[in-house]
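Moderator note: this is an archived Q&A kept for reference. The question asked for a predicted structure of one protein chain; the sequence and the answer are reproduced below.
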Amino acid sequence: MAKLGTVISMLDSPNTSKFAFVINDDAVTLVRKGQFIEVEHESGKLIAVVNDIFRSNRYFERAESVAEYERVGVLSSHFPVNEWSYTIAECRIMGIFDGHILHRCSFPPAPGSIVSTVDEKMLATYLGFKEDGLTIGKLLNHDVDVKLGLSRLFQKHVAILAMSGAGKSYLMSVLLEELLDRNSGQGRIGVVVLDIHGEYANMRGSAFADRITVYDASKIRIGTRNVQPELFPFYYQLSAPQRRMLNTVFQEYRRAALNEHKLFTVKDLMIDISGVEDKKAASTRDALLDHLNSLHKMKLFGKVDDPSITALVKPGHVSIISFKNVDSEKKKQLIVSYYARRLFNAVKKGKIPPFLLVVEEAHNFAAEGIKREEMISKREIERIAREGRKFGASLCLITQRPVRLSTTALSQCNTHIILRVTNPYDIKHIGESSEGIDSHMLNSITTLKTGEALIVGEAVVQPIFVRVRKRKYDFHADGIDLETLAKEYEQKQQQKKEDVEAFL
C-alpha cells in the first residue's frame, strides 16, 4: 500500500466522523475525490472516503499582496512559492473494519497518523461484493470489480434514475448480460422487460440470442376469460346500470368458460348485450356497446393469452415486450397492468420461477398524484413493490423523472442506481427518497459523466460511485444519431422523387 499523507489537526477535526490529511508531494496524483483510503488506528483499520480536496499556498492568501506584486512582476520570481504549496484532503470516516464487520468509529484518529491507499481485496469484502455477483463495472478511482449480489440487488427491488441520454438503457443491458451469463448453480431468474421504445430488441442478435425472445406488443392477445371487467379502461366511467349489465353478461361467460371450457371474446360480449330488448335499458345498452366497440378495435382481447405467462418467464431467459409499434397509451396501460397482475399471481402459486419485471419509463405506468382508477397499471406495480419480495417477484423501475414516479413504488425500491441528473426538482426528490445520500454525493450527481453511477441502498454496504463496464456485444440502444436520421430521410425522399419521374 502506498503512503498518501499524514493526518493533521484542524479546528474541528480529527473527530469521530471526519478528519483531514496533508497529501505528500509524490502522492498528489494518487488522491481523488470519492476515493477510499486507510488510516492507522488503535482499534484496527480505519476506512474513510475523500469528500473533497483543497490546494493552498501561504503566499497567495492575501489578495492585496498578490495584486501588488503581480503589478511589478510574477510573484514566484520574488519568493519561493513552490516550497509553501500544499494539498489537503477532507475525509468522511466510514468506520473501523476488522476483516468481517465494519464497527462504528468511537475514537478519532490521532494527528500524525499515516494515511495509505486501501487494500483493494479488503475493500471488496468491506463493500459486500460477491464473487458470483453481477459485475456491472469498476469502483470509481479503484481497480475493483463491482460485483453485486443477485438477492441484495433485486429481491427488494431496484430503481434506475437518470436523465435522458445518461446511460439508463446501457446499464440495464449490462445487467441483462450478467443475468443471462449465470448458470443454474448460481441461481437464475426469469426476466420480463417492458421495452417502451424498442431499445432492447437488438439483443436477440447477440451471443445470447437463444435465451432472448422479443414480443411485438401490437400483436399480443389477452384471453378475455382471464380478466375482470375492472381492467377495461372505461370501467370506472360507467354508470351503475351499465356496470350491472356488463358484470351480468361477463360473469355468465366466465361460468361457461369454467364449466364448459367455452372461450369468448369482447365481440361475443357485444353480441350478447346487443340482444337486450328491454326498451328501458336501451340507452344503457347502446352506451355500453360504444365502450366495448372501442375496446374491440384495440385488437387486444382474444380467446387465449398470447404469449402465455409460462412462455414469458423461464429461468435464465429474457422476454422483451416491445411497445415500439403501440401508440395508444390505454393499450400500453392494459398490457402492463394485465401481465404484472398475472405474473405476480402465478409466482405466488409456484407456477413460474422467481422473476424480475423491468419497467422502462416507469413514471408513465405508476405516476405520483394520479388515481389508480385513471392509471390501471399503477395498482399492480405498487402491489408488486409492496408484496413481491416475499414471493420472488422483483421490480426494476427505470425513469428519467423520479419526481413523477409513485412514491409508494419508489420507496419500496431498496436500491437506487443514480446516473447523471440535472433537473433540480428530481435531484431534491432523490435526496429525500434515497437513504444514505449526503450533500456531497447529491451535488456530485449533476457532474457524473455518461456511464458513471452512484449506487445506494440494500445492494451495497455504503453508497459507491461506479464506472459501468463496456457491453460484451454490439448493441445500439440509444438509437440513430440525428444527422444520420436527417440524411436517411432526404435520401428516401429523393429516391421516391426519382421513382415517380421514372414511372412517368
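Archived answer notes: The radius of gyration is 30 Å.
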